[in-house]
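The instructor's notes for this session suggest beginning with a concrete chain rather than abstract definitions. Hand out the sequence below and ask the class to guess, before any prediction is shown, which regions might be ordered.
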Amino acid sequence: MSELIEIRLTADQTEGTKATVAQWLKNVGDSVVQDEPIVELETDKVMMEVIAPVTGVLHEVMLQSGESVTEKNILGTISQHSVSKVVSELKKDTTPIEESFLQNDSTSVSPAAGLSYPPSTFISPAVRRLSKQYQLDTNQIIGTGKNGRVTSRDVRMFLDAQKSHSVLQQQEITTGSEMIPHTIMRKRIAEHMQHSIQTAPHVTSVFDLDMSAIIKHRNANKAVFERQGAKLTFTAYFVAAAVKAIRYQPKVNSQFHEQALEVFGHVNMGIGTALGDGGLIVPVIHQCQNMTLLEIAKSLTTVTEKARNNQLSQKDVQGGTFTISNHGVSGSLVATPIIINQPQSAILGVGKMEKRVVVEQINGQDAIVIKPMCYISLTIDHRSLDAHQTNDFLTHFKSLLECWC
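After discussion, reveal the predicted structure:
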């Protein structure tokens, strides 16, 4: 007797996002192995792989490509058989690479332990079809799936990059327009931004920040941090100072509800990260209130590298309570209003650092000096906060950074 096992998502895989079936990696009737990726889902933030909960045969597919998914949905079912039968079927219906893996004593496992594919050998049927169709060498494509596996989205991005290069080469010959279909990420960003503007009355306050103190501290400590596996960026200081400033104004770290303002005791810091033409993603550093500057720098190093390599998990982009947009890294002096990352109540903006002439008192006399300055801003949901809390937060944030030692 075979048992039908449901393929479902866990609540933490979809919390706060919309997931859509990108493609099934297996067809109905195909053998599957426990923990083998069988379907790809795409959200506004990451590409997820759903793995087989058991070894058996894919019995039914209930949601097709393009359909929305929640933890309440059943994606499909697997008819559970004995491991020995499935392994036998896999040996009959496998590529030479997969077959050599199955016969490799160094990677063999007992039936009780299940069977897994090393990332260097397993290629999904969808990727295999695309690579054959476009005559691609998958070894030239950077894999962003589990353990570096090449996904169908990796192939599409590779093809898009080739197409863009070709378009640039032709621009001197022809002119005109091009219709570029929206990605799921771009559609979700558009929906999220529109929802935020329609939901929250945005108000922005802007201050000036002298970065001399943190530049001095960074120059003295970045080599020490590097030896401990952390890149000491200015963003690490912004995170640390924001956490401390929130202690003075806790309502900045909150969520508006119709009947009450929920003020969080923990600070889960979202860091806006641009993905070039691919959009924007906000990885989250959880429980920042308990971290030292070194721990913050290490966490930033990890999440930014994962974001740029398209390796963020769903957990990495969930649960944020406050967000920093360091838009100055792309040359912007001031961005206003920076759209609040709903359902949060505020977002901190940091502009480009530049040397400016400022007036300050030296020995009781006004003097013109050159300082490394940048503009900082706080955009708030005016339902949650007023000017007093906004400016008080920025005052403390500015003071903490300018007096850093």
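Then share the key points. Residues 7 and 347 are 38 Å apart (CA to CA). The longest helix spans residues 152-170.
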